[in-house]
Specification:
Number of strands of chain A: 2
Largest interface: A-B, 51 and 74 residues
Distance between the termini of chain B: 10 Å
Strand order of the largest sheet of chain B: 1-3-2-4-6-5-10-11-9-7-8
Radius of gyration of chain B: 21 Å
Strand order of the largest sheet of chain A: 1-2
Order of helices and strands of chain A: HHHEE
Shape of chain B: globular
CATH class of chain B: Alpha Beta
Radius of gyration of chain A: 22 Å
CATH topology of chain B: Amidase signature (AS) enzymes
Helix content of chain B: 25-40%
Shape of chain A: flat
Number of domains of chain B: 1
CATH architecture of chain B: Alpha-Beta Complex
Number of strands of chain B: 11
Structural class of chain B: alpha/beta
Largest sheet of chain A: 2 strands, antiparallel
Largest sheet of chain B: 11 strands, mixed
Structural class of chain A: mainly alpha
Number of helices of chain B: 16
Oligomer: heterodimer
């Protein structure tokens, strides 16, 4: 499987990273290099193997479904690039 | 020189009141002032905070109190959130970020009385093996080639700043994170001990996430015993990390004195690659001989899926990263670039805020998780990951620990291995399998190459059996008698 320029643009859109048109060929070559190298995994017989999601080999603990934290909006908003009152502010999204 | 002491020696000296924690901290701050402009190991130096912590440690020690790390000055990788101290993850996108909370690992160290000298440089979001991807400039390895002393070498990565700081005596120990080798590889490049504990041993809460199922916080130190002391403080169950293991933390320092008599040590044949430098092959054989002489039984073993570890890693890690890094959108924290609308704001912020390697990995991760490609890439990689874990499980039915080289080369120069991303990725070929399987591993400095650069050996153990890993590492350390020091160091 190798990526064409349209797929590179589509992935960049999905990832919400602006890619300038002149950078597409270089990115395409780099990503195809990596994906080509990864193809070696097709040599491995994985029939009947259960996928492993992570290194933790224990059941997740249950906890009471109660609020244990919060109530400090100023701390939450302290790093906001823009705030209005106790809200994060963004450009208008609804006309 | 106070800066040459080990943590164990400093702990004894502080308790005996031979010197004060304040004097110890000032000695390190002076060393940082002298050498950090060159090494770029620290991104932020917490001068006044460190002095206040040292004075508090002195007061506690004078009262006959003080935790096990009272007054010990440490370097903290700038991936651990620290209250009120800027935490950048080596990225422009977090350049203005000042966390309102403390990571669990650093909170544990503070609970035990440690002094934080500052936050150390790293590859951006811990993605790299050379510290060259940091948005705040590369770090210089304090070690120099004998033949080519002008060459500026990399400290390894991603925890390159902590490694350079501890090697150059700008801290007594440090914290790192290891997602594919980011503690063990820089430890090997800088002549240090680096510990990647079992997955779940150290909480990930408050550590800026790269690949959550692979990220492991751990310590850097100049001796195995010091590594045991630091891990003992950092480790422990944390309800705030759902993958944190509710398992008692044993006495790692005591484990260092166990010896290896009667232990079965596996030597995996798949770690013998064709291109391996003869010096590394010879050092590995020497390590085997040391352990045999110390009373261990050596067993040839096989981990048949080793060669597929890196490729599986470069699907799983970018996939998780693409998800974790979705939070950097210019809205709630970090940098913002304005756009025509909200979506344009996201895209411009992320294009300007992320460096080339991070953008590349987010794009790869987005692709392998996208509809139509998920099964072919991500699911297959997870199955290969299961086979790699099975390799370890099978082999640990026969042996107590494994001995391998840590890296396929000594430290390389800045600018080398930059031709294409895969050349850089190959640095982690011996370290990645332990991350995929979640098993504990350590790198111990074991010798020098012909150019006078340090080389490490890696010990890998059973899940949650760091004690055996420390025992084997201590035996290697005792046999190796590694006493070389880097060219650039405090008082050097």
């Amino acid at each position: 499987m190798s990526l064409d320029p349209a797929t590179v643009r589509r992935i960049a859109t999905l990832a919400r990273i602006r890619v300038e048109e002149e950078d597409v060929p270089r990115l395409q070559a780099e990503l195809n290099g990596i994906l080509g190298w990864i193809e070696q995994l097709n040599e491995v017989n994985v029939d009947g193997v259960e996928p492993l999601t992570g290194g933790a080999r224990m059941a997740m603990k249950m906890r009471d479904d109660v609020v244990t934290d919060g109530g400090y909006p100023d701390q939450i908003l302290a790093n906001a690039p823009e705030r209005i009152g106790d809200f994060f502010a963004v450009p208008k999204v609804v006309e | 020189m106070l800066t040459d002491l080990t943590i164990a020696e400093a702990r004894d000296g502080l308790r005996a009141r031979d010197f004060t924690a304040e004097a110890l901290t000032i000695a390190h701050l002076h060393a940082i002032e002298a050498l950090n402009p060159r090494l770029n190991a620290y991104l932020t130096v917490s001068h006044s905070q460190a002095l206040a912590q040292a004075k508090a440690a002195d007061a506690a020690l004078a009262a006959g109190q003080g935790g096990r790390l009272a007054g010990i000055p440490l370097a903290i990788k700038d991936l651990f959130c620290t209250v009120g101290v800027r935490t950048t993850a080596g990225s422009r996108i977090l350049e203005p970020f000042v966390p309102p909370y403390e990571s669990t690992v650093t909170a544990n160290l503070l609970r035990d009385g440690a002094v934080f000298l500052g936050k150390t440089n790293l590859d951006e979001f811990a993605m790299g093996s050379s510290n060259m991807t940091s948005a705040f400039g590369p770090v210089e390895n304090p070690w120099k080639r004998r033949q080519d002393a002008d060459a500026v070498l990399v400290p390894g990565g991603s925890s390159g700043g902590s490694a350079a700081a501890v090697a150059a005596r700008l801290a007594m120990g440090g914290t790192g994170t290891d997602t594919g080798g980011s503690i063990r590889q820089p430890a090997s490049f800088c002549g240090l001990v680096g510990v990647k504990p079992s997955y779940g041993r150290c909480s990930r809460w408050g550590v800026v996430a790269f690949a959550s199922s692979l990220d492991h916080p751990g310590p850097f130190s100049r001796t195995v015993q010091d590594g045991a002391i630091l891990l003992g403080s950092m480790a422990g169950h944390d309800p705030k990390d759902s993958t944190s293991a509710d398992v008692a933390v044993p006495d790692y320092e005591a484990a260092c004195r166990r010896g290896v008599r009667g232990l079965r040590i596996g030597v995996p044949r798949e770690y013998r690659s064709d291109g391996m430098p003869a010096e590394i092959e010879a050092l590995w054989a020497q390590g085997v001989a040391w352990l045999r002489e110390a009373g261990a039984e050596i067993v040839d073993v096989s981990l048949p899926h080793t060669k597929y570890g890196l490729a599986a890693y470069y699907i799983v890690a970018p996939a998780e990263a693409s998800s974790n890094l979705a939070r950097y959108d210019g809205v709630r924290f970090g940098m913002r670039r304005d756009g025509e609308d909200l979506r344009d704001l996201y895209e411009r912020t992320r294009a300007a805020g992320f460096g080339a390697e991070v953008r590349r990995r987010v794009l790869i991760g987005t692709y392998v998780l996208s509809a139509g490609y998920y099964d072919a890439y991500y699911l297959r990689a997870q199955k290969v990951r299961a086979l790699i874990l099975r390799d370890f499980t099978d082999v640990f039915a026969k042996v107590d620990a494994l001995l391998t080289p840590t890296t396929p080369s000594a430290a390389f120069a800045q600018g080398e291995k930059m031709d294409d991303p895969i050349t850089m990725y190959l640095n982690d070929v011996f370290t990645v399998p332990a991350n995929l399987a979640g098993v504990p591993a350590i790198s111990v400095p074991a010798g020098l190459d012909a150019n006078g650069l340090p080389l490490g050996l890696q010990v890998i153990g059973r899940p949650f059996d760091e004690e055996t890993v420390f025992a084997v590492a201590a035996a290697l350390e005792a046999a190796a008698g590694f006493d070389a020091v880097p060219a650039i160091r405090a008082g050097g």
